[in-house]
């Protein structure tokens, strides 16, 4: 990790235009997260959780307000600079594993390193896969794996470049209870190992309870 | 995957005799894939998705080349957009860009326009046919669309797991 991974979300508003007028997905959200800590974003569907995660990751811009990661004002960076920031410092995990079906696990995990131009990425990808119990499956295609194995590979891809921040959006939403516990174990284990800040959107109360802190969102506000 | 019996040869290379590593290398170096869903990585921009594929094919890896490719595909104005900011047709065109990035000899396309309206579907397929002509690329595509099937040099009809017309 090379950047201060504290997060400051300040008075963030995200407004979408709809046929019936503007709708606020986030309505003045403010909070701070210490570098290296873990936070669960909880709340009912449609409350703005995924929108918030997208804004923190620079995938979307707030209509007003600001998001700061360390010293970088994410919401003021150009699209290109936000893209550079994401690929260097952020790891993403979604409910869908988003593995490319025609690449092996090793290749899928190596994608992030290839994008950052990291030399000798294969060794590091293999080491991370081994760390997550997937060494024997490195040369398999995603279609040949179980849902839990695929999601573990998605975690591997999210952390292989040792990001400062891991953003996870319902990472266990498509898994059974046993696999869900396993994936949270891995996420927390890897977060501690690389010293990253973890923000996880989840409906799973048990998973949320294992993180350092919870932020509850309802109707676009912290409640 | 491997067949239980029978042989598949691509450019003289017998697929069923290759080990996992060799097959992965052959896929990365010589084959481009386009599927029905675009399979773009949602947290990477259009140009980053293409750039990744260049990295894997051992072709000189560069953002510049990815940008050139997307420009050729009529996406100069969408390069720095995320997949969710693109229309279905644009996403599928980026997916074609990903498939072409490593300068493959063979493009495998599985129902690539199945989710698109007919005008957009025609545009995307025209783009694939154009790439085939300009790059001397063999294209093998799966389709339910009879009209689209007729545009190929050859078509094979499969029913009940057998070729019934060729």
Give your account of this protein's structure.
The complex is a heterodimer of chains A (223) and B (166). Chain A is of the alpha/beta class and 223 residues long. In chain A, β1 and β2 form a beta hairpin. Chain A starts with 6 loop residues before the first strand and ends with a strand. Chain A is 35% helix and 27% strand. In chain A, the strands form two sheets. Chain A has a six-stranded mixed beta sheet with strand order 6-7-8-3-9-10, with helices on both faces. Chain A has a four-stranded antiparallel beta sheet with strand order 2-1-4-5, covered by helices on one side. Chain B is of the alpha/beta class. Helices cover 41% and strands 15% of the residues of chain B. Chain B contains six helices and seven strands; from the N terminus they run ββαβαααβαβαββ. In chain B, α2 crosses α3, α2 packs parallel to α4 and α4 packs parallel to α5. The longest helix of chain B has 18 residues.
Keywords, separated by commas or semicolons:
heterodimer, A: 223 residues, alpha/beta, six-stranded mixed β-sheet, four-stranded antiparallel β-sheet, 10 strands, 35% helix, 27% strand, B: 166 residues, three-stranded parallel β-sheet, two-stranded antiparallel ribbon
Short summary of the structure?
Chain A has helices spanning 49-56, 79-89, 105-115, 121-131, 147-159, 177-194, 205-209, and strands at residues 7-18, 21-33, 38-42, 64-69, 72-73, 90-93, 165-169, 197-201, 213-218, 221-222. Chain A is an alpha/beta fold and 223 residues long. Chain B is α/β, with parallel strands linked by helices and 166 residues long.
């Amino acid at each position: 990790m090379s950047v201060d991974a504290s997060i400051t979300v300040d008075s963030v508003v995200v407004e979408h235009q709809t046929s019936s007028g503007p709708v606020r997905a986030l309505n003045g959200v403010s909070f701070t997260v210490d570098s290296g800590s873990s936070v669960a974003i909880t709340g009912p569907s449609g409350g703005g959780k995924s929108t918030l995660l997208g804004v923190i990751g620079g995938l979307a811009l707030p209509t007003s307000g600001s998001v700061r990661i360390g010293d970088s004002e994410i919401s003021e960076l150009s699209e290109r600079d936000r893209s550079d920031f994401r690929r260097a410092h952020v790891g993403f995990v979604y409910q869908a594993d988003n593995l490319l079906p025609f690449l092996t696990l090793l290749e899928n995990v190596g994608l992030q390193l290839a994008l950052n131009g990291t030399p000798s990425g294969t060794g590091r990808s293999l080491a991370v896969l081994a760390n997550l119990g997937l060494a024997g499956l490195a040369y398999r295609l995603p279609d040949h794996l179980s849902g839990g194995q695929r999601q573990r590979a998605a975690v591997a891809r999210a952390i292989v470049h040792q990001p400062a921040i891991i953003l996870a959006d319902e990472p266990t939403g498509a898994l059974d209870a046993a696999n869900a516990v396993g994936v949270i174990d891995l996420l927390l284990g890897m977060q501690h190992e690389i010293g990253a800040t973890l923000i996880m959107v989840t409906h799973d109360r048990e998973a949320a309870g294992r993180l350092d802190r919870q932020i509850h969102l309802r109707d676009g506000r912290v409640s | 995957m491997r067949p239980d019996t029978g042989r598949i040869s691509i450019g003289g290379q017998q697929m069923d005799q290759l080990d996992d590593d060799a097959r992965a290398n052959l896929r990365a170096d010589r084959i481009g894939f386009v599927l029905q869903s675009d399979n773009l990585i949602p947290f990477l921009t259009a140009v980053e998705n293409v750039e990744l594929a260049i990295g894997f094919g051992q072709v000189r890896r560069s953002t510049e080349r990815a940008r050139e490719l997307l420009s050729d595909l009529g996406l100069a104005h969408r390069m720095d957009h995320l997949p969710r900011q693109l229309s279905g047709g644009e996403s599928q065109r980026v997916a074609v860009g990903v498939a072409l990035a490593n300068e493959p000899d063979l493009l495998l396309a599985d129902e690539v326009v199945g989710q698109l309206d007919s005008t957009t579907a025609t545009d995307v397929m025209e783009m694939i046919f154009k790439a085939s002509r300009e790059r001397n690329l063999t294209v093998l595509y799966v389709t339910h669309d009879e009209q689209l099937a007729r545009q190929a040099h050859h078509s094979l009809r499969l029913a009940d797991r057998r070729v019934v017309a060729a």
